[in-house]
Structures are given as C-alpha cells and as structure tokens.
Amino acid sequence: MAGKPRRRPDSAALLAERVAHGKSAAVGALLFAARALNNPSMAKRLDAAEVKALFHRLSNWGRWGREDQRGALNFITAQKRLAASRLMLTGQAVSLALPLPTAPAADNPNPVTHLTFQMGTEPKAAYHQSMDYFAIAPHGMATTHLDALCHVFWQNKMYNGFDAAEVRADGAHRCGVEAVRDGVLTRGVLLDIPALRGVRWLEPGDAIFPEELEAAQQLHRVDVSEGDVLFVRTGRTLKRRTDGAWDVMRHGMAGLDASCLPWLFERRIAMLGSDAISDVAPSGYKETPFPIHAIAIVAMGVHLIDNADLEALAQACATHGRHDFLFVLAPLVLERGTSSPVNPLAFL
After folding, report:
1. Is 6 exposed, middle or buried (0-12, 13-18, 19+ CB in 10 A)?
2. How much is the mean pLDDT over the chain?
3. Is 240 helix (H, G, I), strand (E, B) or coil?
4. What does residue 281 show for φ and ψ, rounded to 5 degrees?
5. How far, in Å, CA of 201 to CA of 7, rounded?
6. Helices marked H in 223-299 — which ranges?
7. Which band of pLDDT confidence, cut at 50, 70 and 90, is reported for residue 7?
8. Distances (CA, A) of 170 to 110, 176, 234, 294, 336
9. Which residues pair with 167 in a beta bridge?
C-alpha cells in the first residue's frame, strides 16, 4: 500500500442541497464544514518531522506515575461514571460489535476458528450437552477488538516508557489488556463523518481532518470532553456490506489524518474507536505508517477499539437526536494479552 490519503470533497454543493431541502438546523455546522473543506489553510497536513514531534508534544508518560499501565483510562473518574450513568434515557441498548468473522475474506486472512465438538444431532441420554471451541487472532481488519497499550512500540518503547522487550513469548509483562479488567463505563460520543459530508460512507483512503471533527460536533450538538470514549464513523461497515470486502493493505481505508492527534489530546479522551482502524490508510508517512495507532497508544496511552459496527448506533443517535450515550465495555481477562475481542455497548 502506497501513496497519500485522499483529499476531502468540495462541500459547497452539499451545503446548498441541504439548505434547499430545508435542513436548516445543521446550517451553522455545514457552513463551518464548507469553509474548512474548501480552505487549504484549514486542511494543513503535517510533514514527517512534525508527526514524529508529536510523540513528545502529546506525551502522557509519567502523568499518572512511572508505574502506570492504564493510560488515558485514568481520565475516567468515579464522578464521570456517575454522570455517564444518567445518560441512559430510553433504555435502548446497542451492540457495537461485528459478529466474529469465521469466513476468510479479502480483509480477513486469519478467520476465527469455531468448532462444535459435542452436538445434538444424535440421540443420547435424556440429558446431554453441546460444546464448542474457538480460537481468535484478534488484531487485524475484521474482528472488533481492543488494542492494549503494549500493542505498538516507538523506538523500542511502549506507553509510559516501558521497554518493548517486556513483551515476550509468554506475553506482555507491561501494559497487557488485563489493565482493563475492571471494564470501562463512561460517556460515549459518536461523530458521524458521512452524515456531515452527506454521503453513505467515506471511500477508501479518505482522510478526516480536525476541522471536520469540530464541524461534526456542531452538527450533532455535542462536545467531546475529558474521560469520553470517542467513536468516529466512516461508514466502512455499510460499504463492506453493500460492495463486499476489499484488501485494505492494497486499496486503503478511510480514517483520521495525523493532524487530528492534537485535537484528540486536548480533549483528554479516554479511548478512541472506529468502524475501521482509526488511521487513514495509506497515511502518507513512511516511518510512521499508522500515526494514530502509534501516537495515541504509545504517547497518549489511549486504548483503541478497531472494527466496531457503528451502523445501528448511528441510526439510534439520529432517531433520538443525540450523539452521546452511556458506554460500557469489558474485555476478556487475558493476562499478558496484547488485545481482546470485545462487544462494546451503547445505552441511550
């Protein structure tokens, strides 16, 4: 995979169309988006040196002590949890997980192995059981999973300065996924970028810039704040269901440009999620091909949720006219694991 991320489309025609259809509630946000999308000075990409400088500029190393292994999850306080619990207004629950992918596909070269070895197909005693076995390689482009803070290294270091050599054949002795064993309960926020652009989904290689995150906040009348779990929808799941799977490493994937990282850092998010992998691919940076992964995980200590299914959540948020919700997540307690499959839940 080579090249640079795709530039954003001209939004002037989109704005005119929406105004013509009477969608005046979003006019303020769309005007902002139109200015941002069409003003090159508002869409400045960072050069390679500027991206590398973000490792130091956006670092949370030592913020919660030299031995900390939870990272930005520390932004979730007891008060934050209590406030989040009051966001469930209708009782509607929405899963943000894809089904575990058991079939190979262009974006799933290592499908989940699922075997049933005790079945109900043969007559047995009055009481008998069914049992199964499954094996998962959770990282990649197909399984909804949580990236632990030991997943990515930069210059032989992981989050908080721990040495990369702490991850050995028997697993990660620092920053393993068990650091999240008590689960996550906080406020979740969805920023729906295809809704902002007036399209069903973003195309592979489309880059999202911080001006669009700002515009999406205005469109959805929501502010991302300290301790939130932020989800950014690209529409990848809908595109995949409509057009089929594609080889992400060859054809790319929509996601955040590296210039979004300071925006994320300033808001002190606790976790970042996407229906893709958060990074735009290709990113255009040879030495840091996945800068969102590298800097969010290593420098900022932000766990990532990859390959979420945000379609039902986007519909629910649109129906209820709000884009924040109670968010709950609990990974498997896999000691020394670099990842865990997860079923994130939103309650509106």
Report:
1. middle
2. 91
3. helix
4. -135, 125
5. 15
6. 236-243, 248-251, 261-266, 291-293
7. low
8. 21, 12, 36, 23, 8
9. 172
Q: Please name which of 260, 250, 272, 143 lies closest in space to residue 204, comparing C-alpha atoms.
A: 250
User: Which residue's structure tokens are 């229906």?
Assistant: 275
Q: What average pLDDT score do residues 139-150 get? A: 98
Kindly write down the DSSP assignment for every residue of 206-234, as one continuous string: BEE-HHHHHHHHHHHT----TTPEEEEE-
Structure tokens at 123: 């007559």
With bands split at pLDDT 50, 70 and 90, how would you rate the model's confidence at 18? very low
Angle at CA 250, nearest 5°, toward 248 and 255? Answer: 45
Confidence of residue 35 (pLDDT cuts 50, 70, 90): very low
Fold classification of 12-101+140-347 (topology level): Glucose Oxidase; domain 1 (3.50.30)
Residue 21 makes CB contacts below 8 A (sequence gap 6+) with none
How far is the C-alpha of 286 from the C-alpha of 333, rounded, in Å?
35
CB 133 within 8 A of CB 115: yes
Spell out the domain ranges in the chain: 12-101+140-347
Residue 311 main-chain phi, psi, to 5 deg = -70, -50
The pTM (predicted TM-score) of the whole model is 0.90
Radius of gyration of the chain measured on its C-alpha atoms: 21
Q: Is 166 exposed, middle or buried (0-12, 13-18, 19+ CB in 10 A)?
A: middle
Burial classification of residue 40, based on how many CB atoms lie within 10 Å of its CB (0-12 exposed, 13-18 middle, 19 or more buried): exposed
Q: How many CB atoms lie within 10 A of CB 182?
A: 11
